[in-house]
Automatic annotation (TrEMBL):
Keywords: Membrane, Transmembrane, Transmembrane helix. The chain crosses the membrane at residues 34-54, 75-96, 102-121, 133-152, 172-194, 201-229, 241-259, 271-293, 299-320. One of its GO terms (cellular component) is membrane. The lineage of its organism: Eukaryota, Metazoa, Chordata, Craniata, Vertebrata. This is NIPA like domain containing 3. It comes from Canis lupus familiaris. Pfam families: Mg_trans_NIPA (PF05653). GO terms for molecular function: magnesium ion transmembrane transporter activity.
Amino acid sequence: MDRAPSAALQLRQLPPTSSAHPVGEVSFSYKENLIGALLAIFGHLVVSIALNLQKYCHIRLAGSKDPRAYFKTKTWWLGLFLMLLGELGVFASYAFAPLSLIVPLSAVSVIASAIIGIIFIKEKWKPKDFLRRYVLSFVGCGLAIVGTYLLVTFAPNSHEKMTGENITKHLVSWPFLLYMLVEIVLFCLLLYFYKEKNANNIIVILLLVALLGSMTVVTVKAVAGMLVLSIQGNLQLDYPIFYVMFVCMVATAVYQAAFLSQASQMYDSSLIASVGYILSTTIAITAGAVFYLDFIGEDALHICMFALGCLIAFLGVFLITRNRKKAIPFEPYISMDAMPDWYLHNRQLQFKRHSISKNISCHNLERV
């Protein structure tokens, strides 16, 4: 009679025999998700405030003769400090939460910029024009907030320690190698059409940015996670993979900024913001799912609700950016002040000769 309860007790004490990740390296904790999400939201909010402070400073000094007068203002330096603080918060968030959760939260920056811009920077508006001009922005903000809530609620909840061994293991796994092969081929094809065929379509440029950005966020998470572990006492800086990831992070971020700069010279900033957010978020989530296996162990309902949150956030960002004012489409790439004197002198001579020859031709025609 005593053997049955004891056998049942032994069965209940048996450890689980299967797990998606090694025990001790993964902790299923909503607390870490919350910390990462709060850090990302805080970082994006602070960055938005910083950018609008600097924009406000530039607007006030637009008529100044000194082109660098903003360096002498406390407002601009406060904006720079807040920007660094916000970027540090976003960087730290990657060490706590899955990549698939942190990347879509950049919609918070778009929401904050829209609200701050309407309140503090936009020109005065009449009550009768309020709905016509700002209803899309408010609807977009509401949708983006709903989408963000769904993202935080149904985000993947697996947390793997960013040790050198784990990162190396993921780096040489066949799914990621296959993904990298596809991404490199696609990047080379897009770059060929962009450079050789002059394919300056915004989709081509922002796809190049998104492909580089997916590698940026993958390496950022690795570097941030290894730094946090090192601060906690588990030193990871003696692994060569840390420095490989750090170099890749800096290189992809620099080239990403270069392509964004080229896109901003040809297209409106609101279009870049909406299309870039959608493409970058989609490709970055895919990279995180392949490299860090973010969705392993998640049920279909959570994955579908997370995807729904992404779609709602995409729609919200599109509506917010669609109502922004169009920028001035033309701006010379090279200022005439930067031209050498001999070049300007030659151009003036050519223009005079052309004018003289044209006048002679017209005079001859009149005589005929």
